[in-house]
Amino acid sequence: MAEHKKDPIMSVEQVTKIFSSGVFFRSYTTAVQDVSFKMYPGTVLSLIGESGSGKTTMGRMILKLLRPTAGKIYFHGRDIATIRGKAERREYYRRVQGIFQDPFSSFNPLFRVDRVFDQIYDVFFPELPAAERQARTREALLKVHLHPERTLAHFPHQLSGGQLQRLLIARALLLDVEILVADELISMLDASTRMGILNLLVDICRSTGMSVLFITHDLALGYYISDYTMIMHRGRLVEQGATHEVYHNPVHPYTRMLFRSVPDIGRRWDPKERFIPEQVSREIEEFYSANRGRGLVQVSPNHAVLMSLD
Ligand SMILES: Nc1ncnc2c1ncn2[C@@H]1O[C@H](COP(=O)(O)OP(=O)(O)O)[C@@H](O)[C@H]1O
Ligand SMILES: [Mg+2]
Q1: What would the pLDDT profile of 165-191 be if each residue is shown by its tens digit?
Q2: 159: domain range?
Q3: Average pLDDT for 228-239
Q4: What is the domain count for the chain?
Q5: 37 lies in a domain?
Q6: Is 53 in the pocket of ligand 1 (CB under 6 A)?
Q7: pLDDT-derived band of residue 283, with 50, 70 and 90 as boundaries?
Q8: Whose CA is nearest to atom 4 of ligand 1?
Q9: Structural domain includes residue 271
């Protein structure tokens, strides 16, 4: 977007993902359709949408866990589909990491936390001497407000969900990652723990230049944390831009509807509190046909809206 002078770290260009399933009767699901966006250093970009809208699929393509059906993803100008082989993939994962909803699944329950950190060094920095490893681990844990000695001696099940998510953030710090995909990062945590983790993430972004893709179904969280916001509906980005513009001046009927169902931005969005789907679809269809031929429109330098599908 216009106000950025720096080059993007990551550029997603017209990415589509179609899943096929079934042996005799093949069926196809278009999970992500024609999605484009850029990620810049030191910013939090949120990807917001209902369950099933394609958010996780997008995140998994960035993490090279899924391959796009069409379109390209560039990391510092390099098409990530061309990143192959052990050494190149390892280098990619040193710089691009994901944190998922369930922090427990990210840890081997049989290993103490210090083993988890040792593995990071063994894989990514095998030449680093033991004393240096220890110093770096301490520093990373202190940054995420965890007590180094106490935390390292524990098994994952002895730590709380909030502590495990802090550990995952510490892991990202150790690797000095440039892109962090945080998929429903804090949805399973209680309110007070959430705020601590969000603030931590923003602080780290600002101080290290890390760029976060914050995936959530929670409008209030998106508003709280992000510089830029993308609204996803059935695999398409229907609206994207500077958070304050998207939230205070929504244009797409889907975005407007989302905000109508959240009268107060401070209130949590209850995904069960649904508007009538038929009415939503009809409004969107009418909007697209009234704007036929306009496609993606830049309504201001920092705000773009999908006005029609042709
Ligand atoms: N591995 C898969 N195989 C088939 N369909 C999938 C697969 N993963 C996701 N989908 C489908 O793609 C759509 C988007 O899913 P997902 O990306 O998980 O959405 P979200 O994270 O927004 O809830 C859904 O319809 C889902 O059922
Ligand atoms: Mg998901």
Answers
A1: 888 888 888 888 999 999 988 766 777
A2: 10-306
A3: 97
A4: 1
A5: yes
A6: yes
A7: very high
A8: 19
A9: yes
